[in-house]
Amino acid sequence: MVATKKTKKTHESINNRLALVMKSGKYTLGYKTVLKTLRNSKGKLILISNNCPPLRKSEIEYYAMLAKVMVHHYSGNNVDLGTACGKFHRVSCLSIIDPGDSDIIKALAGDN
Amino acid sequence: MVKFLKPNKAVVLLHGRFAGHKATIVKNYDDGTRERPYGHCLVAGVAKYPSKVIRKDSAKKQAKKSRVKAFIKLVNYTHIMPTRYTLDVDLKDVVSPDALVSRDKKVTACKEVKAKFEERFKTGKNRWFFSKLRF
User: Fold this and answer.
1) Chain B within 8 Å of A105 (Cβ-Cβ)?
2) May I ask which residue range the UniProt record assigns to the signal sequence (chain A) (predicted)?
């Protein structure tokens, strides 16, 4: 699988969209709640940091495959993802339940 | 956004005595009950897997090797790993929550589940379900 070079522009736009979701939408942070939202089919988009342990990453991807939910591998580690969410702690995975005013789901779906 | 924890879904138990054993969901309780205020499900699974049957075996030996021991359990969603497989065995009338009330009801329910599982194993379908997960 060829990893596409993430240009700075698209990365910034994802950060912007994430900020909008944090402000206006519904989301949960953290592995346990991500699995919970996948099980009850509330999650619409999952973001995983790049230093998430591979077993955990595969598990989330498998659940998302069963639930037919898109997973986005955030280009940045959990520190960066936490910062992008506006939090002062690390975030390894997060689940967007309701994007609010943001078009992050359409933008990422359009990319793929 | 598709619900995948549905009846007939094959799952692997992660915790407890039957950790690593495969089971199939019989009934879901997504919002929990008064006694169990969390998402859980009633599963029927394989307690003792059937051994490998080879062509050389006599009929009596084949019958002995194809025995399956079943279990019925109420298990939390966080303690199961769902898989992409399903097991289409009709267990709804056999397995019900009141089978878990008393021991002899549980034993009779398990015996019926065992019969259904053995019947399915002998047809050769769902081979993944009846093979032991090695870890």
Assistant:
1) no
2) none
| pLDDT recorded at residue A28 | 96
Which has the closest alpha carbon to B72: B13, B5, B127? Answer: B13
Q: What ipTM describes this predicted complex? A: 0.90
* Residue A5 banded pLDDT, cuts 50, 70, 90: low
Distance CA(B98)–CA(A112), nearest Å, equals 49
Question: Cβ contacts of residue B95 below 8 Å, gap of 6+?
Answer: B26, B27, B42, B44, B72, B109, B113
**Interchain proximity A39–B39, CB inside 8 Å:** yes
Q: What is the mean pLDDT of chain B?
A: 93
- DSSP E strands in chain B: the ranges are 9-13, 22-29, 40-48, 69-76, 80-86
Report the amino acid identity of residue A14: I
Tell me the whole-structure pTM to 2 decimals.
Answer: 0.90
Average pLDDT over residues B5-28: 95
Cα-Cα-Cα-Cα torsion A72, A78, A82, A88, nearest 10 degrees, comes to: 170
